[in-house]
Structure formats: structure tokens, C-alpha cells
Amino acid sequence: MVRCPKCRAEVTAPIKSWPVLARKSLQKDEKSKMIMGIFECLNCKTRFRATLESETKIEEVASIKNMVERIKGIKEELMQTLKNLREKMKTLETERANLMSEIEKLKQIAESRVSALEREISVLREEVNSLRGILGYIEEPEKIAK
Q: What is the spatial distance between Cα 66 and Cα 70, in angstroms, rounded to a whole number?
């Protein structure tokens, strides 16, 4: 962390940063550990330059920013998934209601057919009885009970 030169408040993240070659001669393929940054104090709004302690600090800030971006992306995906699930639930509820009304209609049709068949059976029984009466055929009491 860096302190503001004016108000001595701690400033955590630079506005901009860049690597700077160290004054000491570096060995071949060795990266400079010194990083400069422009900071802005949140208290007094002063802008100033300062060196960062190590490259890992910026990497940590960058990784936190990346994690925040990933979390935002995941949140958006979850919100989209929630929206899709709500739409599916609404569709399924509508389909269920349609199926229930269709079942009720089929029940009514079946009940009307049953009552029509019962009426037809009673008419046929009356015809059988009248034909028996005309023909003079009387059933034995045992057969009637069956």
C-alpha cells in the first residue's frame, strides 16, 4: 500500500501502472521488480506517482478485478437461467391447466356415454320383458335372481 503525500491516507490501487527498469543492471531475461503507478487519494483527491512494493500487488489487484468480473458474469448467467426457469414454469403451468381441462371434458364425455348406455340397457330390458309378456314366456324365479 502507498500513502498519500498530502494527507497520509492509504491508497490501495493505482489508476495506472507500468514496469520500470531498475537502475542496477539486470541479468539477461530478468524482469524488473520495480513498478511505478499513478495513484489518486480518495480523501483529498490528490494525484501522485509512487513505486509499488512488488509486482504481486498489482497481480493481486488484477486477480481481484478478474474475480469481480467473473462473479458479475456468473451473476448474469444465473439471472438468465432464473428467467428461463420462470418461463418454463409458466409454460408448464399453462400446459398443466390445459391438460386438466381436457381431462374434465373427457370425463364429461365418458359420463354422458355411460348414462346413454344405462338408458339403452334399461330400454332393452323393458323390451325383453314386453317380448316375454307377449310370447307368454315366464322365467323361473331361480333364473331371475341370477
A: 6
